[in-house]
Amino acid sequence: FDETYAQYNALQQQCGFDLSRHAGETVTQYVYSVTGYDDAEDVRLELLVRGGTVIGGSVYTVAVDGFMRGLGS
Description:
The protein is of the alpha+beta class.
């Protein structure tokens, strides 16, 4: 992983996931729009799925000054 993915994986590890185990594998990314989340705008839910199992994900805003949280955070 480059530095960006290493930082993202650190977030995943805080939530019990570890994407380094899946480095080089093909996964499916699902992204959903979320409404009513802490009154924030443009919120997305991202799920990373491999073989029918969620292996990671996050909730984030697309705003420049937004946030990113791991699943279960």
